[in-house]
């Protein structure tokens, strides 16, 4: 198939070129949105990532250009207007699970870095500053970790934190018997907010979960709570998080995703003036750690993403059952 792959980075080319045998892929550095949709002329499918914006207008335009399939090279599909795709008979496929451990391990890395301040220690020691002043952390052992969303990533994260000797309390509409058998308990969201020392978000972004963390829910949390988000940026109302940081309600914030990340992440802006005031304010807090949507970013995950995406496209081309289809 002739595929237009958007938001292409060097690592996308590397892994897709390594594994691709059947498809004719053109790589576009630009993201796919209503303004770049014209680039899809002459292609049969598009391959997109988390910050490509496939809203109704974009879908109308790519449908008019003959696009029949949208292959997401990620798990989340909140950036696709599914109703619009369905109406234009465009199939949407995704990579439901590429390396849940990659994301779960990154969440653990955010926790350890924020807690034990290894990022600060690294810089200090490089400058021959061997003082331990203000590097005090806390033991993870016996702390209560609240996990919102216990799908494949949430469960992998629970396994890691159980290994640290943490107590796991979880909230999900579907309870995992396997997690319960390992000692995790399910609780209400309110109880999770009340009891957790660390809260980690692993649910998808939906109308129900948008701003699930907000001024009101911060009010229910322990003082000095640590909040980790490797899910989607808009799970947290960032302005409310800034207020909670200023009030010292929120003791630590570790995020790999940010509400307005589309205009910031996945590019080098080191010589630009930061225009996003909210993000700029976040950067002033010593107890905030931001990574630029890299939780998935391991060699194993990239290999799996390209393998499954290419298989999804081959299945579509051959009229086979689309095991990874996203339904409206
Ligand atoms: P999954 O579908 O296996 O699990 C999601 C879980 O969330 C399910 O158990 C579901 O029941 C639960 N859930 C849904 N709505 C909920 C709600 N309102 N409250 C509590 N739980 C709810 O998905 P996954 O593979 O574990 O991925 C989780 C999310 O992680 C994805 O949706 C994606 O947004 C994000 N993600 C981020 C990265 C990254 O690099 N940062 C990479 C992959 C996925």
What would you note in describing this structure?
It is a single chain. This protein is of the alpha/beta class. The protein has two domains: 2-98 and 299-317, Rossmann fold (3-Layer(aba) Sandwich); 100-290, 3-Layer(aba) Sandwich (Rossmann fold), CATH 3.40.50. It has helices at residues 10-19, 56-64, 82-87, 100-116, 118-126, 152-163, 177-181, 189-195, 215-218, 238-246, 277-282, 299-317, and strands spanning 2-5, 24-27, 45-48, 69-72, 91-93, 144-148, 167-171, 185-186, 198-201, 225-229, 250-255, 288-290. The strands form two sheets. A seven-stranded parallel β-sheet has the order 8-7-6-9-10-11-12, sandwiched between helices. Helix 1 (10-19) crosses helix 12 and helix 4 crosses helix 6. The longest helix has 19 residues, at 299-317. It is globular. The relative contact order is 0.14. The mean pLDDT is 97. It binds nicotinamide-adenine-dinucleotide.
Taken together, the total number of domains comes to: 2
The helix/strand class is alpha/beta
Main sheet, how many strands, which sense, barrel? 7 strands, parallel
Strand content: 5-15%
The CATH H-level superfamily of the largest domain is NAD(P)-binding Rossmann-like Domain
Radius of gyration: 21 Å
What multimeric state do the chains show?
single chain
CATH architect. name of the largest domain: 3-Layer(aba) Sandwich
Number of strands: 12
Order of helices and strands: EHEEHEHEHHEHEHEHEHEHEHEH
**Average pLDDT, to the nearest integer?**
97
Number of helices: 12
* Strand line-up of the largest beta sheet: 8-7-6-9-10-11-12
**Which spans of ≥5 residues are poorly predicted at pLDDT below 50?**
none
Which bin fits the share of residues in helices? 25-40%
Task: Give the distinct bound molecules.
Answer: nicotinamide-adenine-dinucleotide
